[in-house]
Description:
A: 455 residues; alpha/beta; 3 domains; 22% helix; globular; B: 497 residues; FAD/NAD(P)-binding domain; D-Amino Acid Oxidase, Chain A, domain 2; Arc Repressor Mutant, subunit A; five-stranded antiparallel sheet; 32% helix
Amino acid sequence: MRELKEHYDIIVVGGGPAGLAAAVQAYDQGVKDVLIVERKDKLGGILNQCIHTGFGVQIFGEDLSGPEYADHYVQMAAERKIPVLCGATVLSINQDQSIVISGSGCGVKRITCKALVLSMGCRERSRGAVNIPGSRPSGIFTAGLAQRYINLEGYKMGKDVVILGSGDIGLIMARRLTLEGIHVRMVCELEPFTNGLTRNLVQCLEDFDIPLRLSHTVTMIHGKERLTGVTISRVDENKNPIPGTEELVPCDTLLLSVGLIPENELTLRAGIKIDPVTGGPLVNEHMQTSLPWVFACGNVVHVHDLVDYVTMESCRAATAAVTYIQGELPRFREEIPTEGADAVRYVVPQVITAGDDVEGDLTLYFRVKKPVTNAIIEVSCGDWVFYRSKKLKMIPGEMEQVLIKAELRDTFDAIYQENQTKGMLTVPDVFQLDKQRKGIVDTKLTVSVRSEDDR
Amino acid sequence: MITGTYDVVVVGGGVIGAFIARELTKFKLSVCVLEAKADVGMGASGANSGIVHGGFDPEPGTQKARFNVEGCQMMRKVTSDLDVPFEMIGSMVVAHNMEEKEILKKLLKQGKENGVKSLQLLDSWELGGLEPSLGPNLKGALLSSESGVVCPYELTQAAMENAIHNGAELFLSSPVTSIERQEDLTYVVHAGEHHLQARAVVNAAGIYSDKVYEMGMEAAVGDEIIEAHQESFHIVPRSGEYMLLDKSEGMTVCHVVFRIPSEMSKGIIVTPTVDGNLLLGPSLNPRADREDTSTTIPGMEQVKEGARRLVPEINLPAVIKAYTGLRATTDRANHDFIVGRTPIKGFYNAAGIESPGLTSSPAIGQYLAEIIAADLEAKLNPDFDPKRKHLRFRDLSFEEQQELVEKDPSYGRIICRCETITEGEVRDAIRRPCGARSVDGVKRRTRTGMGRCQGGFCSSHVVDILAEELGIDPTEVVQSTPGSYILTEQTKMKGEE
């Protein structure tokens, strides 16, 4: 890139799908002074190692591979001549609207900006987090690391594999390893259902006759130097291993696909508030964090199922960042928290702005905790249910959304205003969601999912 | 066939062996350390609580009491010389009922007798103010302000690096198989390809210190034989399992928190680590296999249960790692350390070192080096340099970071995101004396892979750098021990599309 400046209007942290879309969108919305900071030597993020297809159906109307999808946006950024700083890591986000970066090419520098967009993506849960007893041999990898070795580095990491967790990467790696000539013995899943997309279950396991063991987990690791096997056990409805169901499965490799967590080391250090459920920063519908000049989008906020939705969310974040710079985005004020009820695990955004100047449709994104058949989705405010829809089947692996039309939102807003004028509601710190004061009616937007079968 | 001749051969490259070696280099003595494993500090030194104990717990008059108190007093100077982080956060024993509160008074008296300074009884109100997360029903605590936390494997590496810097030699992957005595009463220590002649042998073999003592007995001559047998001992290994929690939990408590100690152990503790994580453990169970450092469900349950008793609201889902250390407990009645001369002339013990071994290590090293130097009539080494430096990028100021990266751009490239570790630090960890030879070796020296992702992002970079620095193929890079390979075969060349 050209000489690194000391200031950019918008800095985007991360050059994966979220960051690329955000930078392009910010440019197209009129802020030309954008910088992308990427820690790897190449743009595209995790898409570069996702050489399978399944990307872009929503946005491009075609089934692309990860690198192809990324390339579309890399091209768009290049056409706009958006400067990209690769091989540089952001060390800190500072209160004076600056960031400190470090790279072997650029050295250690402080750069200021008017708005910052966080798009660092997510990382995989590790073995310790799932607490498998046993020895500590080599041969235990997260599925994403194995994917990196196979697809990018060109190395095999074993001959005989057990995969724990039926998340999408686990399923995709089951197929990928098989194609590479590695024996995949089975995929074990703690839950009685899979965590991945249905299409991956069919295309990656069923098509290759790879056994899926639901309600099973790895209960012991064996091997002194390299892994020699794992003990798997059936679990009861409380996910506790059932004694007597142990089975020794010889293998030299264990892949873990036990979930993804937004990567927010940097966010936390900046004092930005984090939603304990999503693991990402709390955001409003503009993808604005508790630090008003900092926006966030993509898997750093919550783990998405499809990259297309990451792109869409990032465009919204970038548009809001542009509006913010132009002074048109309301700064912080009283806002309305959202919450999930019944089978809903989380809702993003966690807060929405209210007031006369707020307009437009509102989309709420959420995931369910467990599979729900004949689901009734409701959005309510207190007793008032103002949105209802039905869905045949909902699964945790898929991200759901509801669209609240502008007119409905106006009504909702009116309730909020009314509550406020009556002096019934004050939410001084919008992010203190747990703060419930006596005598104050909480205006909350509740998304609930129940099964019709339960009635 | 002798492959080397030294004044002193130290058997064992744990924290005890490392400090003995370092302290011996303060004298004009040639020193060699033999370590069975592929890296230093792979036994109990690498898997313990990392606590610098005040010294009120050991029974007065024991070696444990003596070396604990001395070691604790030495720790600040030693860690500053060796550039090892040491946080004097203080420790407290808490009482859950009035009976236990009485025991606190006994511990205070015992501590004073042992010569521990800065001990103080806290009432429940004071305790609640200092440690609000400990729950409401506590009756009081004994606070030891000079206690703290240190990284045990870094302390081991640092002491060994400094010993090597001052002329000591280290042979890794060299388990000692037998010890012979020559006619002139010097020893020959056999360890794989090494056959080292020595005037003195120090047994700091940790969990194997009884086996090494037996080898020493084989070398005994004349009157030594009977006496040596009278002093023989056995190690009865006991496992201690630990759970490490994410840094998000590091502020759960601000002191090292113990329950009332029992005869066998100090019980499950909850403590911040020097790196800001929260550590729980250890469990306490006999374990027959000296090589078995696996974690177990009952062991982890013990740890969880013990931790919940201290901190009712502890966030156990934040666990990022579990591991087991094996304590070298002796079969002697009071489980005291066995440190000093033995009936076998020129053969010294630093055996049966369990807790508070880490705290005691500098004192044990100093004590043994002094008696060995006296016995061998060695003079002081005027060139001894006590300092060792460890560059930590993330602890530098903005300006220092800028300057460093300008000088060496590899310090600008972040390898480990969770812990902010740079390529420069990884290379340095491999190049320095007693350098890393495995992914875990790099991890223990730099903290790459010790964060939340536990190496998911950085380990492939570390493999690449190790391969490059050691001049080997990535498929030859190991996780820790020989045989713990990571990659099996290359399927395509770099750059091939």
